[in-house]
Amino acid sequence: MNWWFCLILVLASVGGLITLYVIYLSHHQKHHLLTAPIVGLSGITETEIDPTGLVLVGNEIWYAQSAYPILSGTRVQVVAVKGVWLQVEPLEKPV
Question: Which end of the chain is more exposed for a tag (fewer CB within 10 A), N or C?
Answer without folding.
Answer: C
